């Protein structure tokens, strides 16, 4: 039977304005396994760069290990990463106020 391990970590993405793409800070590869510590770092980032938008990202990594069979390519250990945006309630309220003032939502970029 395969053995699975799941790990959750958090990191911060920022952008200078709402039409800019979200990105991690250049040269910063920080992530935290503690949600409380990540939220504290998010608050510090918002104080340091108050004119930028910042959001907390959640990364879930699942590792599945099982014995290699005759078809090693199919039976190798697999790593799956899923990133989920976990909006900060205060940021959501700011966005809603901005949408109400502007009269609509900005175009969605894919």
In terms of topology, how is this protein built?
Blueprint: E1 3-15, H1 35-48, E2 53-65, H2 72-75, E3 78-86, H3 89-102
Antiparallel strand pairs: 1-2, 2-3
Give a written overview of the molecule.
- There is one protein chain.
- The chain has 110 residues and is an alpha+beta fold.
- The protein has one domain.
- Helix content is 29%, strand content 32%.
- The chain has three helices and three strands.
- It has a three-stranded antiparallel β-sheet with strand order 1-2-3.
- The longest helix is centred in the middle third of the chain and has 14 residues.
- The protein is elongated and about 55 Å long.
- The mean pLDDT is 77.
Quick tags:
110 residues; alpha+beta; 3 helices; 32% strand
In short:
By secondary structure, this protein is an alpha+beta fold. 29% of the residues lie in helices and 32% in strands. The longest helix is centred in the middle third of the chain and has 14 residues, at 35-48.
- Helix segment tally: 3
Largest sheet, described in full?
Answer: 3 strands, antiparallel
> How many strand elements?
3
Question: What does the radius of gyration come to?
Answer: 19 Å
State the end-to-end distance. Answer: 39 Å
What is the global morphology? elongated
What strand line-up does the widest sheet have? 1-2-3
What is the string of helix and strand elements?
A: EHEHEH
**How many domain modules?**
1
> Structural class of the helix and strand makeup?
alpha+beta
| Overall helicity | 25-40%
- Low-confidence regions: none
Please tell me the overall pLDDT: 77
């Amino acid at each position: 039977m395969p053995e699975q391990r799941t790990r959750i970590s958090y990191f911060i993405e920022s952008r200078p304005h709402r039409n800019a793409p979200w990105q991690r800070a250049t040269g910063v590869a920080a992530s935290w396994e503690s949600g409380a510590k990540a939220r504290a770092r998010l608050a510090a980032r918002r104080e340091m760069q108050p004119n930028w938008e910042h959001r907390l990202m959640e990364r879930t990594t699942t590792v599945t290990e099982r014995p290699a069979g005759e078809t090693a390519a199919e039976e190798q250990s697999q790593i799956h990463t899923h990133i989920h945006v976990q909006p900060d309630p205060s940021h959501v309220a700011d966005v809603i106020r901005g949408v109400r003032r502007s009269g609509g939502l900005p175009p969605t970029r894919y």
